[in-house]
Amino acid sequence: MPLDPLPYDKHLTDTLDALADRGWAVDHTLFDADLIAALRASCEARWQAGAFHAAAVGRAVNEARREDIRSDAVLWLDESDSDPAVAAYFQRMDAVRQAVNQTLYLGLAELETHFATYPEGAFYKKHLDRFRDDDARTLTAVLYLNPDWPADAGGQMRLYLDEACTQHLDIPPEAGTLVLFLSDRFWHEVRPTHQPRMAVTGWFRRRIGPMPW
């Protein structure tokens, strides 16, 4: 599923400007409907095949499953995946990485990413995406795969806009929505969902060590 080169049009410029100005951006243009549908189909098939596992918090010796903190399930992905939709996702995300580096000089080198599924009732409490003992994660990228998401279905990402977490933006997990934000600055959570919810969640990393799997 080859993609056209990432266009340096007004939408991408606005996304990069938002990242530069405030550290976060929401884009609805970089992934077309066909690719989103193919990614969702891939995610659903792997979920039905039992390929996912319960998500954990922390890393290395501090990694633990804490269902009081998060209740989603994940499946890690890599660029060698044979699924054309996953390969196309990595291709488009690498174009985003290059555009961000050219504009913001963040030194993004690699992407770690997984499918994430939230069954009905699942949530993820407020957290930061950068580990205390590993500062490689620099830019978070969450791509939603849920078409026609109802307003009353919950499952929004609540992005806290200030350090004290007194202001926030709730972002519905509607298919094609890509949320980008600096991993060490923005607390966020996933509100309890009232129906199954799927996403591709990734983190662009600076190259300071091996990948964590």
Sheet with the most strands, sense and barrel status? 7 strands, antiparallel
Termini separation (Å)?
Answer: 27 Å
Computed over alpha carbons, the radius of gyration is: 16 Å
* Strand percentage: 25-35%
Quickly count the helices.
Answer: 3
Structural commentary:
GO terms for molecular function: ferrous iron binding; L-ascorbic acid binding; peptidyl-proline dioxygenase activity. This is Proline 4-hydroxylase (Includes Rps23 Pro-64 3,4-dihydroxylase Tpa1), contains SM-20 domain. Its cofactor is L-ascorbate. Keywords: Dioxygenase, Iron, Metal-binding, Oxidoreductase, Vitamin C. It holds the Pfam family 2OG-FeII_Oxy_3. The model has no long low-confidence stretch (mean pLDDT 90). This protein has helices spanning 10-22, 33-48, 84-104, and strands spanning 24-27, 53-54, 73-77, 110-118, 124-127, 137-144, 157-160, 168-171, 178-182, 188-190, 197-205. The chain is globular and about 40 Å long. The chain has one domain (31-58, 67-205): q2cbj1_9rhob like domain (Jelly Rolls), CATH 2.60.120. By secondary structure, the protein is of the alpha+beta class. It has a seven-stranded antiparallel sheet with strand order 1-9-6-11-4-3-2, with helices on one face. The chain contains three helices and eleven strands.
